[in-house]
Amino acid sequence: MKRLTALLLALLTAASLTGCEKEPESAELSLFAMDTYMTLSAVGEGGGEVLAEISRSINVLEQQFSRTIESSDVSVLNREGRISPDTDMDTLLRLAVQYSEETAGAFDVTIAPLVALWGITSDSPRVPEQGEIDALLPLVGSQHIHRDADVITLDEGCAIDLGGIAKGYASDAAAAIFHQSGLTRGCANLGGNVYVFSDDAVDTCWNVGIQDPQDPSGWVCTLALDDHFVVTSGGYQRNFTAEDGTVYQHIIDPATGAPAESDLLSVSVIAAYSGDAYAGTRADAYSTALYVMGERAAADLWREKNDFDMVLVTTDGRVLYTPGLADCFTEAEDSCYVYQQIAA
Ligand code: AMP
Ligand code: MG
């Protein structure tokens, strides 16, 4: 199988899409949306228009899912406690509740009050008192989201945050557009959410690099993939350092209301595109959840579901990967990590 010379790093910055091979009919587009830099790339006639369509679609979704845009569906729901959602919001909330159940609550969009309390991705992060955390913990849980006919309501005081899943939903939208486009190949790097596309007739794949959580310019491995989502979550992506030197990262454990104290530095979930099955959305929710769950529970969930792959980077210096990746997995050269396959 021929490999594209492009190296795609699953980073959070504009530099994440590096070295894309320039071909006569290639196009690239960068945008800032959903609080992150995104880079889109396409090969094939009309690629520029396809990327513009993907970009428009991401912007439309952001208008609905953002917590900071006052008119968004999420803001209205959080402010007024009820909303008649449009199709995307309705679908995404339904999926979010489903993934919360599948991950025993490790992923939970009702974590919003605690995300706001810690403010880790805001301009004013702080370490709250335990009493403040305890007061908000009862507001967390998908049982607080109610659906009645065309109306969604939230219990008093509750709020939702789609930051752990909205980019995955946007990557599903990008994948659908690529598939309808007639293009040869393309990729959408939406922060830590990557989708790579190769037309079935083209015998090529992308090399997707998984960032080294301890070295922003390095990677722990590359994966040769086509038509897959690769979604990475990690505490290294966003965090703040308190006055006493403690680092608090942005993924909250719904069981404690505090930043997850994971034995993982990062989790990457790899899932094949499968029509309208929302594989990108699910990979996004799962990567967040598996980070919270830690190595052992993540491996248990993978064995139970048996329908996705993953790469775990542990705090004690191991890179663990599922056997389904063996044929497409290349270790980084001169790596200081120990590489192990996860037992099925
Ligand atoms: P991700 O980068 O996809 O892992 O998502 C992290 C973001 O999701 C955070 O910045 C929060 O906005 C939100 N979040 C934090 N903790 C959780 C959680 N346990 N479940 C769902 N969303 C979360
Ligand atoms: Mg996520």
Would you kindly provide a written description of the structure presented here, covering whatever features stand out?
By secondary structure, the protein is of the alpha+beta class. 29% of the residues lie in helices and 32% in strands. The chain has helices at 47-65, 73-80, 87-102, 112-118, 130-136, 166-181, 279-305, and strands at residues 2-9, 17-18, 26-33, 36-43, 82-83, 145-148, 151-154, 185-190, 193-198, 204-212, 215-225, 228-234, 239-241, 247-249, 252-253, 258-259, 264-272, 309-314, 318-321, 329-331, 338-341. The strands form 5 sheets. Strands 3-4-8-9-12-17-18-19-21 form a 9-stranded mixed β-sheet. Helix 1 (47-65) runs antiparallel to helix 6, helix 3 packs parallel to helix 7 and helix 6 (166-181) packs across helix 7. The longest helix is centred in the last third of the chain and has 27 residues, at 279-305. The two termini are 27 Å apart. Residues 1-23 have low confidence and may be disordered. The structure holds adenosine monophosphate and magnesium ion (MG). Adenosine monophosphate binds at residues 107-109, 111, 115, 121, 161, 163-164, 192, 233, 250-252, 254, 284, 287-288, 292. Adenosine monophosphate binds next to helix 7.
